[in-house]
Amino acid sequence: MGARNSKRDHDKEGETEKFGRDQQIRLLFNGCNDEKAEITKDKVKELWHGYLTQKLLAVILSVLYERKRLYVLFEEFINFYWDSCEISTEHEAELMLKLVNAIGNETVNEKWLLILISEFIQSFFKIFETENDCAFNDWVKFGSLHDEPLNLAEYFLNNMDDTDDKHITVDALNSLFTNNALFRILCHHVYKTLFNTISLEKKIAYFPDVVIRSNYKPILTLSELLFLQWHLGQKSTCKWRLLFSIDNDGESWSSFLKTILGQGPTVIVIQDSNGFKFGAYASQSWNTNPNFYGDENSFIYTLHPKMNVFESSGYNKNFQYINTGQATLPNGLAMGGVHNYWGLFLSSDFGNGLVSESCTTYKNYIKLSSEKEFTVDKLQVWGVGAPDPTPEELGERTSILDKDPSAAVMLELAGRKLHSTEIRQIKHEQ
C-alpha cells in the first residue's frame, strides 16, 4: 500500500513538473493553450536568433520543421523540447543524430559532429552575452576571448565511445552525453533558454566571479575558463583572485612566494615558449615544506594544444611541494611525481620548468609540454578559495617572515638560524 502511494505521489510530482515547464513554453506564445495551434518557422526564428549562432539556428529549425514545413503544431513544438533535454540521454542522442545529419547534408561523421559541438559551445557563450551575465561580462571585459572552441569540442568528442568515423550511431552519441556531463548540461542550458524553462533550473556558476588587478593581461579563453571552472566544481566556491602574473609582477621568485603563500587553494596557469598551455589545481595553501603534502582533490591539466585533466591516481600522496633556499633539496614549486621526476616543476631559477614523460601521482598523465625542459612565457596564479587566516585574525603577533617570505630566504643564506620557523614547524607537527 505504502509503495503504491509513493509511486502515485511521484507520478503527481512528475505531472506537476511537466505542467510547470509546459506553461513556461506557452508564455513564448502569449500563453497559448491550443495544442493544435500552428507555430510558424518565422516566429520561432525571431524568438531564437539572439541566442544561437546562425549555423546552429538553421540546423535546429531544419530538424524541427522537417521536410521544409512552414509550421508545426504546438504539441509538436513541446514534444521537441522534451526530447531535447528532459526525458533521457537516448532521446537526446537520437535528436543529436538528426542534427548531425542536417549540418552534414546527409553525411554523418566525426568531422560534422565536431562542428556541431562547437556550434553548441559558441551558442552557449552567446546566451550569456545576450542575457548580460555579470561574471561572464567581467571576464570578457578583462580580455578573455570568444575563441573557436575546437579544443573543448575535441575533448568532448574524445570522451565518446569509439565509433567508425564514417558511421556514427545513436549508441555512440548516447555515450557523448553520458561520458561528458558538462556537454550534456551545456546543451540543456541552450535548449532550456530557447524554450523559456531555464528560470526553473538551479543556477550554476559556469563562470566564476573575479577580482583582477589593473593592467591584467589574459591567458585563459572563455572555453578554457569554462573547462577549468567545471572541473573545480564545488572545490571552488569563492571569487577567483589574481595573486600573481608574470606580466605584472615580473620574473621574481621572491615576489612569487610573497603573493601565493598562505592564499588557500590555487589554480596555476602556464604558457610555455612553444605555445603549450597547462597547469595545476592545488587544493591546499602553498606553504614552504621540504616534504610533499596536499590531498587527492588536486589535479594537473592541459589546455592547448589539447584539453585534458589528470586526477589523483591514489598511487602516492606527492601532490604539492614548494621549497626555497635549500642546499640539498630542490628549490621550486612542484606537483606530482618525485624529486627530479616531477609531474610539473617550476624552478626557483625563475622562468624555467620541468615535466616528465610519466607521473604516477596523477592517472593517465601525459607530458604537459612539448619538451621535458620548458621556458615559461606566461604565468598566472589564481586564488580560488579562502586564504589562510592571518596572524592578526588568529590573535598572534606578526613576524617579519610573515610580511616578507623572501626575508627568510635571505636570512638563511646569510647563515642566520630561524628559530621562529622551527617553533612553527613543531606546532604544525603537533
UniProtKB/TrEMBL annotation:
It is found in: Cytoplasm; Lysosome; Membrane. GO terms for cellular component: lysosome; membrane; nucleus. Keywords: Cytoplasm, Lysosome, Membrane. It comes from the Eukaryota. Residues 218-385 form the TLDc domain. It holds the Pfam family TLD. One of its GO terms (biological process) is response to oxidative stress. Signal peptide: none annotated. This is MTOR-associated protein MEAK7. It comes from Rhynocoris fuscipes.
